[in-house]
Amino acid sequence: MAKPFLVIMAGGRGERFWPRSRRNYPKQFLAFNGEQSLLQESVARIRPLTDDARIYVVTNKEQVTAVLTQLPFLPISNIIVEPEGRNTAPCIGLAAAYIQKRHPEEDPVIAFLPSDSMVFSPEEMRRVLEAGFTICDQQDTGVIYGVRPSRPETGFGYIELGKKLGTYQEVPFHQVAAFKEKPDGETARKYVACGEYLWNGGVFVWKLDRLMLEIRESLPGLYQGLVEFINYIGKPDEMSKLTEIYPTLPATSVDYGILEKSSHLVVVPTDYGWDDLGSWSALERFLPRDESDNVIQGQHVGVDTKDCIIHSPGKLVTTLGVSDLIIVETDDVLMVCHKDQTQHIKKLLQKLADEGHRDLL
After folding, report:
1. pLDDT tens, position by position, 91-140
2. Which of 44, 199, 240, 264 gets the highest tally of CB atoms within 10 A of its CB?
3. Long-range contact list for 216-221, CB < 8 A, 24+ apart?
4. Digit-coded pLDDT (tens) for 7-26
């Protein structure tokens, strides 16, 4: 089997990490646990699996400079630029179209991975990915990776495990019984207790021809748009044609548009220490706390301060008699937010836009 292609999806906006995350520099370009950004870590952990020439990044035009700066070893032609965000199904279809056009003699395995997750056991991730490449190649099936849940999380989608189909190199693979939307708290607790549900971590593998067939069957509008565009790849009017076609493609997720409809898909249960980093509150799960259970990044002096998350790389933050707050300082914004409101930061961003502060978004 030829070396796989690896596609990193890096076009997200990361609004829940505002004000550090901005439209032109969202959370995948930020470092939360060391010197490397989430994007750099995402590429570094899978880089040993293939050649740099077979690693692609899909992003948008506002973020190209950041990608090139953070990943200078990648060929510039491997940075695929979406004219606008259309969700993940067009994103993966566009990457597949480029690979098909540039490697017409191959039917390679392609892994698609998000750019903004934490993985604490990269060796285990590489092990199960390599097994999945072979399963995908030999079984003519897509492979999706489910993460064994460590808590009853309501912010993630879940995959219900079906019958075990086999094992490759000690990596089991199962039928997909069902995809489940983000549950309420009681349902999430039931999912964790029964042991038959996995977090959907957004990592999946397909062979190119099978993927294009799945797109044709499940999203014919997307398929027709890709077929039309592929003839322009490598030509002078490539980007103008993409700018014309891309906004007409269905704006849907790969989960809803393709994976949930496929009869050629298996799930591999994994435990490689995955976290989605959905909001500032997620930092409490992996960063150390002080004696008052505060997570501090930067300078802080506090009295009677507990259970706070304080991110201030520039200024000294002082607090007195507060708890359960998120305090984030940047050059141009100071945000103070109660911890139970982190899922609603988009409301704050909308108010900023309405009041003429789009330069801060």
Report:
1. 999 999 999 999 999 999 999 999 999 999 999 999 999 999 999 999 99
2. 199
3. 217/261, 218/257, 218/258, 218/261, 218/262, 219/89, 219/93, 219/250, 219/252, 219/257, 219/258, 221/248, 221/249, 221/250
4. 999 987 778 899 999 988 99
